[in-house]
Design brief:
globular; mainly alpha; 78% helix
């Protein structure tokens, strides 16, 4: 069962159980997935025949995962803003939604696993300075997509690339 079908099945179950919170959240997530499909269809309409558009515009699990990650990121941003505005009630609801959406993510990388992937990428492309962050990130992004936050990975890359230069400065 692909991710989109899983979301729809859980929505159906939530409707049957009259779970208002889950129904609302999954309807919103389903709409976000459908909007991404519409955007993909519009892009494909320029090059593909009309008969194949519906089939070609279906999201892959990876694309659906991108939508979920995007929605989680929106929730995190909202939590930050609501907390700044002293709206603990709204921040709490956003946190519940974020935690529920995280169920759809693959198992997250530990800090050690991420560090190992970053170190291997640095060695593979012979990155030596902070200027190589973009190259390292391009190398690791396909491996960590959906399993680690880009900002966390970027900070780790910066940290690991700046270590040798700091050691050189001391010598």
């Amino acid at each position: 069962m692909d991710l989109k079908q899983q979301i729809q099945a859980e929505l159906k179950r939530a409707l049957q159980e009259k779970d208002i919170f889950v129904c609302g959240l999954l309807r919103f997530l389903n709409a976000a997935v459908q909007n991404r499909e519409i955007a993909k269809r519009a892009k494909l309409a320029k090059t593909e025949p009309l008969e194949k558009l519906k089939e070609l515009s279906q999201l892959t699990d990876e694309e659906a995962l991108e939508v979920i990650v995007s929605e989680i990121k929106k929730r995190k941003d909202a939590i930050t803003e609501f907390t700044k505005g002293n709206r603990a009630d709204l921040a709490s609801r956003e946190k519940q939604e974020m935690e529920y959406l995280q169920r759809y993510l693959p198992i997250q990388l530990t800090e050690e696993e991420l560090k190992k992937i970053v170190q291997e990428a640095i060695a593979r492309i012979n990155a030596s300075s902070v200027k190589d962050i973009g190259r390292v990130m391009a190398e690791i992004t396909p491996q960590i997509k959906g399993r680690a936050e880009g900002a966390v990975a970027s900070n780790m890359v910066k940290e690991l690339l700046s270590l040798p230069s700091q050691q050189n400065d001391r010598n």
